[in-house]
Every structure is written in C-alpha cells, then in structure tokens.
C-alpha cells in the first residue's frame, strides 16, 4: 500500500518536472534536496508550470559575489538571458557589465563545504585559455536553486538549437557537472631539486587543476587528462631516485610526470582511482576542444598552466 501511495504521489506532484531541473539523489547537496521537496509539495511547481520562473529564459537579481583578490563578498546584480545565451554581472547600476559569460561554456556547481554556506555556487568557465572561478551565495536557499536551475534551462535550450539531432537526455547530461574530486595534495615542481608544496586539487572532468587556496579565482596550474592509449597513466610511488613524501603517487603524461603526495593511504587510493577512471575513458570531441584550449594557452605563455 505504501508503495502504491508513493507512486500516486509522484504522479500527482511530479507531473511537469522540466527536463532542466536536477532531480536530486540522497548524496546531492542538502539545499537541492530540501528545495526539491518544497518545490513539489509547498510551491507546487511541478503541477503548476507558471510557478517555474526559472524556465522563462530570463532572470535577474542580486547575488553576493566573492571578490577576485580578497575574501569579502559584495552584492552584484546578475542578469541571465536566453536570447543571447549570456550571464552578465554588474558592479554598479547603469554601468556596463563587469563581465559577460557565455552560458554554453559555463559550469555551475553547488559549493556548500568550500564556502561554508549551503546556499552557494561555484561558476567556472574558460577565459583567455585558462579556467576562471566565480563564487556566489544568497541568503535564500530557494533563490540559489532558482539560479542554478535557470542556468541549466538556458543551457539546455541553447544546446537544442546548436545540436538539433541530439536527444534531450543526452543534452541534459551536459548541463552541469559536479567536480569528481577535490582536496589537498602535495606536488613537486618540474625540476628534480624542487620540494613538495601543498596545493588544493580539483578534478573537473578531464581537467586536473591545482590552486594555492580552495577559493582562488584562477588555478595555479591545469593538467589535461587524455586517455591511457595516448600515454597517460597513474602509478603508485615515485620513479627511482625521485623525492618521496608520505603517500606518494605519480601522474604520467606525454609531456611530464607529476609527483604527488596524499596525507593518508586512503586519500591516495581515492585520488588514484578517480584519475584512473578518467584516463580509461575515450576522448570525445568536447574533450579535444578542452585539450586544445589548455595547449594553446601554454603556447601563448599564459601563467599558471602546467
């Protein structure tokens, strides 16, 4: 009987969940789980589509944005527009936007642990050949989920125009991605005499980034992870004669070997497994584009790459 009741409730309260809305699982951020429940049973968003303001193709409002060069948060007006596929933000009213971001190139992820705030997001995109991170938050959990969903909705509609032959389910899988793994590791520089330095690592799909601090606006370096057939591998320990620290492992790429170290055996195993899963996958056309951005950035001499 309970199962029948659950099915009936789902049919009633989830009649019109838009494809861009992320249906949460138990492991997803708490803010997404809570707002999913409130959207279903309190706001009746999925029985009354007129309540789905995030599907309108336009959204504007204020978010608290972390300063690029400080740890303070400042109110910034953001404007999302589907007609030109952009997200803009303004420092001052009636002035030109501080930045215009192409939504197609934008990844959005919740960042509760990093910002120590449940209602927070990390926006990441490629600029001038390198990744840029923007951190935003709002005091209203409903509002932050609306922004998250609105960005996904605009992205879906832009994808549907750009890739008319792709199925909706294929495109939905490309709307946003959570980072595969993040945490502190130590790494050496390229010279044999370089010592280990602590860095915050982020594994974002096929890009392994490292930062001085988790909240840095730019990674200190970015490593594209190709596939095993092209000379990428992950190995326990370090090459003979190389410096070793704690629980070491080595990432081999065609251009360089990276000596890395975790603080525990368990952490090392988790990082190695995560990276191994990435390099075992075949490259997609989107992966090749990401690789070319990092390579072209390196050729231009952009700081912080490799």
From TrEMBL:
Keyword entries, A-Z: Cytoplasm, GTPase activation, Metal-binding, Repeat, Zinc, Zinc-finger
Q: Which InterPro entries match?
A: Arf-GAP_dual-PH_domain, ARFGAP/RecO, ArfGAP_dom_sf, PH-like_dom_sf, PH1_ADAP, PH2_ADAP, PH_domain
Q: Name one GO cellular component term.
A: cytoplasm
An example molecular function term from Gene Ontology annotations: phosphatidylinositol bisphosphate binding
Kindly indicate whether the keyword Aminoacyl-tRNA synthetase belongs to this entry: no
The record's principal subcellular location, in a coarse class, is cytoplasm
PH domain location, by residue? 56-156, 178-280
Q: Where in the cell is it found?
A: Cytoplasm
Gene3D superfamilies cross-referenced by the UniProt entry: Arf GTPase activating protein (1.10.220.150), Pleckstrin-homology domain (PH domain)/Phosphotyrosine-binding domain (PTB) (2.30.29.30)
Name of this protein: PH domain-containing protein
